[in-house]
Automatic annotation (TrEMBL):
The active site is at residue 128. Catalyzes the phosphorylation of D-fructose 6-phosphate to fructose 1,6-bisphosphate by ATP, the first committing step of glycolysis. ATP binds at residues 10, 73-74, 103-106. It is an enzyme of class 2 (transferase). The gene is pfkA. This is ATP-dependent 6-phosphofructokinase. One of its GO terms (cellular component) is 6-phosphofructokinase complex.
Amino acid sequence: MRIGVLTGGGDCPGLNAVIRAVVRTCDVRYNSSVVGFQDGWRGLLEDRRVQLKNDDRNDRLLAKGGTMLGTARVNPDKLRAGLDQIKQTLEDNGIDVLIPIGGEGTLTAAHWLSEENVPVVGVPKTIDNDIDCTDVTFGHDTALHVATDAIDRLHSTAESHQRVMLVEVMGRHAGWIALNAGLASGAHMTLIPEQPFDVEEVCRLVKQRFVRGDSHFICVVAEGAKPAEGSMQLKQGGTDEFGHEKFTGVAHQLGVEIEKRINKEVRVTVLGHVQRGGTPTPYDRVLATRFGVNAADAAHAGEYGMMVSLRGQEIGRVPLADAVRQLKLVPQSRYDDAAEFFG
């Protein structure tokens, strides 16, 4: 059997560990070969590929961030228009099964290909942890460590200057990074996309801390957080070619509002792509490896149209159709628990 693998969408710590595991499992367990398509779906459309081998170079992938195959975002309309080319590329290279590794967009494309009778096994990745039907996605733990470490450091400088600090983290639709980093770092408030915030309530908590003699205030803000209607006018940035909203810096805009309303100095830190980069944590390396092994097993077992998934401590498989039906958002109960630590 000959397996194809690609990484789509944004990069994520642990991608190389999945590739390594697929290659090693295919070689050792099944005596199969693996072809990697470069720069995600674009490489598949343009037939740019590399033969992947179970050698020293493959072993060195485990601790390396990013993706050795490269990645890119491709407009879904371009993918649909290129269906015949995709099938031709797979046929020309003798690919029996394709293993796409990616987030919502990549897995949705994988599901669509599966419905077009392309043998596919999906592997979920995203630092946002918003893929449904799996407890955790690899990459989230690394991003959480980066965000928590940054907020820990900001506590000391905020305390020294008696400042309000707003820390913006990734999370377009789901607030898992913000919620978990806020709890782990002892932040005084967390704002997430699932819960529209009231600027007056934010200001009330800020004033409350300083009135009672506390030295600083730290609020973690997910990039997709939005104010409640009538609470604050958020500047809009339009949409990109994929229909995704362009964010215009909610933390910076909130900081201006806080300074205007309560005359308190505010500093904003946007962590940005540092959350995506660098060496994956041991947890993400292990999870990504287990996902890669299971994906290779599924491919050889003929279980197509599936996504590998973590439930409890076990790796299993779920239909791609179920996994891409909706995003996994922060439930009200989880946010309510976190809110007990606000202020």
